[in-house]
User: What shape does this take?
Amino acid sequence: MFEDLQQSLQALHDRYRCLNEGSVAAYIPELSKADPDGYCVAITLVDGTQYIVGDQDTQFTLQSVSKPLVFGQALTTAGRNIVTALTGVEPTGGSFSAFEDLDDEGCPLNPMVNAGAIVTASLIPGNTHEDRTKVINDMVAKYTGAQPTLDQAVMDSELRTGDRNRALGYLLKDKGYIEGSVTDALNLYFHQCSLKVNTQQLANAAATLANHGVNPVTQQRAVSTTYVKDILVVMLMSGMYNYAGRWAYEIGIPAKSGVSGAIFGVIPGVMGIGVYSPRLDEYSNSTRGIETFRDLTKQYNLHFLGPDLQTTDHIIDPNT
Assistant: This one.
């Protein structure tokens, strides 16, 4: 079914590399320095086969793409009952940093918005900031296949411009959804957003979720199979900001975007897809990324309700 993937990726890259709609994120000043013409597409199949076209050496920060990974780590650390008591799983029509992303009791609606992600960051174990960042870094390395590095300039920029997130953090603390230091939780959240990867590593992370929590390239387990469903469900419903409903309707795969221009998408039992291009639309999603995913899922009928995907023999039985 996927024998022509490399040619398909090249054709998509040729088609959309001149798409100049959208603007690079500027609300975090350091992100505004990204090359607006940067563009890369990568795929990792669950058998470990990798494909890539475009600016494959370009690194970028995870930003909100880190949220589902840290959500999985919080589930691993604290368990489903505690995590779901502290952040819900409901979609939101608000922006990723809106105060409307809290319910009437002050609980974050889901872990894909900033409020929920600050809560899940607060659940990462460790006695010091260094202990907790090591947990995050090692976890990301299991997903991507490489130890991530911190973009200190982006981290500093996040710290300078993060007052809205600080306000959310203190509100969450006041409502009882964060224990301990708000500053510690926020610093860890800014850290996870400022970790650098490349597009192939992004596809590896997506393929790890597609492969029931095991990185298909390194064979390292990143998250228990028990929690993969939790991660994918919230990605499908809430991973693409307030474009999530249209994404599920038209493209139909669990995915998460970030304001650096990254999108990763998961086709369970089949593949992980990573796209990087920093021009963003009005929803803060990569414009080239959206079109690339739209064409890929249509060409290979990857929508989770697509009949071919549910009847062909390339689906892996999770019980085997």
